[in-house]
Design a protein that fits this description.
Shape of chain A: globular
Order of helices and strands of chain B: EHEEHEHHHH
Number of strands of chain B: 4
CATH class of chain B: Alpha Beta
CATH architecture of chain B: 2-Layer Sandwich
Helix content of chain A: 40-55%
Shape of chain B: globular
Largest sheet of chain B: 4 strands, antiparallel
Strand order of the largest sheet of chain B: 2-3-1-4
CATH topology of chain B: Alpha-Beta Plaits
Helix content of chain B: 25-40%
Distance between the termini of chain B: 46 Å
Number of domains of chain A: 1
Structural class of chain B: alpha+beta
Oligomer: heterodimer
Mean pLDDT of chain A: 88
CATH topology of chain A: TIM Barrel
CATH superfamily of chain A: EAL domain
Order of helices and strands of chain A: HEEHHEHHEHHEHEHHEHEEEE
CATH architecture of chain A: Alpha-Beta Barrel
Number of helices of chain B: 6
Low-confidence stretches of chain B: 96-117, 143-154
Structural class of chain A: alpha/beta
Largest interface: A-B, 19 and 18 residues
Largest sheet of chain A: 8 strands, mixed, barrel
Chain lengths: 258, 154
């Protein structure tokens, strides 16, 4: 355990060695930003892989914890009014159990409402520690924290997960999203997931949407939350607005393609 | 005190007519007010959908009573989970607010949406999503809703 002083200085060390890019998750119905996902970068925009290569595995959970706080601080300084979506590294809550409590406190100090916070946990993490995961979900849900399962549909057990707990959101794995407008099996799987999520009141985010074909397919089946290069790339230390497709004749096109 | 909601669907048995609901709720509302239970009940073509919100102990005991109530069949719990805020804060049970005493007007999805302006006041969240899912045919005992949903996708 660190003393609060040691923790504070440790925090500064982490804050000065990392920064963030933010990528919007767009609500295509209301044409607003639903949330910004915080993505780890180096202080000069270096890739996440580069940043993680400088962290030893023993320090990973602590690093992950401080990174979330740094992301909230930066987003708040940038004038965040939408939600912020924060990733949890697999196993990090196990290694750093008080992490979310501290995050909630720090978020409030930064002037954010707790229901602006969205936590992304990967499907594999949720499967590996189901008991802990359910406990986590429920303990923080009373504060308004929302939980998303990331990479949903990447593994075999995805849908079974929902038998025991129901997150607020799932992010469809981008391998399912890729070329979905032309791939029958992917459409069948995505429709199945959508039906289950509709029945359980779970919001679906299509992640990694890169083409208008993918956009139209998801729009047609009623998915209103999308994230991907088509709408916006991650933007270093800035909260950029997505480029929403524009209606032209009977269809929607990107303004940049006109 | 921990706040939860419990959302279930059931089918009304023959002894349970839609005309009975207002008087039934009249009775339930007094109890709900005493226990701090809020929520809403929707009845469409023999299918019941109800949201119960409140302290975990109170909600669970009411749900247990409903599960054993002969007027309900196929009682199916859809969700039971902690919540940060109530979606139906001002409603001891929202049925009356929906139809102003004439339950029969609720029969049919179109009528429901036509008279559902009060639903705009509901806090967004899972309860609201499920309410609309039910109204559009999910979780209904009869199969017509399922066909409607499939037809729309096709």
């Amino acid at each position: 355990m660190y003393t609060s002083l040691a923790r504070a200085s440790r925090n500064d060390v982490v804050s000065s060695s990392i920064s963030f890019a933010f990528q919007p998750i767009a609500d295509i119905e209301s044409r607003t930003v639903f949330a910004y996902e915080a993505l780890v970068r180096g202080p000069r925009g270096e890739s996440a892989q580069h940043v993680f290569s400088t962290v030893s595995s023993g320090q990973l959970a602590e690093f992950d914890h401080h990174a979330r706080i740094a992301a909230v601080n930066l987003a708040s300084r940038l004038g965040l009014s939408a939600r912020i979506s924060l990733n949890l590294l697999p196993g990090s809550l196990h290694a750093c159990p008080g992490s979310l409590d501290e995050l909630l406190g720090r978020a409030q100090e930064s002037g954010l409402a707790l229901d602006q916070l969205l936590i992304e946990v990967t499907e594999s993490e949720a499967i590996e520690r189901p008991g802990e995961f359910i406990d986590l979900l429920n303990r923080y849900r009373v504060h308004g924290l929302q939980l998303a399962i990331d990479d949903f549909g990447a593994g075999y057990a995805g849908l079974n997960l929902l038998a025991d707990f129901q997150p607020d959101l799932v992010k469809l794995d981008m391998h399912l999203v890729r070329d979905i407008d032309r791939a029958g099996p992917r459409q069948a799987i995505a429709k199945g997931v959508l039906q289950v999520c509709d029945d359980l009141g779970i919001e679906v985010i299509a992640e990694g949407v890169e083409t208008l074909g993918e956009y139209h397919w998801f729009r047609r089946v009623g998915v209103r939350l999308m994230q991907g290069y088509l709408l916006a790339r991650p933007c270093f230390e800035a909260l950029e607005l997505p480029a929403f497709p524009e209606r032209l004749g009977g269809t929607e096109v990107m303004a940049r393609d006109r | 005190m921990s706040l939860i909601h419990c959302i279930y669907a059931s089918s009304a048995t023959r002894s349970f007519e839609v005309a009975d609901i207002p008087s039934l709720l009249e009775h339930a509302r007094a109890k709900n007010a005493r226990l701090g239970i809020t929520g809403m009940l929707l009845y469409i073509e023999g299918s019941i959908f109800q949201v119960l919100e409140g302290d975990a102990g109170s909600v669970d005991s009411i749900y247990t009573a409903i599960s054993a109530d002969r007027r309900h069949a196929r009682v199916t719990q859809i969700i039971r989970e902690p919540i940060a805020h109530r979606a139906f804060e001002d409603w001891t049970m929202g049925f009356e607010s929906l139809d102003r005493g004439q339950a029969s007007r609720l029969l049919g999805v179109n009528d429901f949406f036509a008279t559902a302006s009060c639903l705009e006041r509901i806090n967004p969240g899972r309860a609201k999503k499920l309410l609309f899912a039910f109204a559009s045919g999910r979780w209904r005992a009869d199969q017509t809703g399922v066909h409607v949903a499939r037809a729309r996708v096709a």
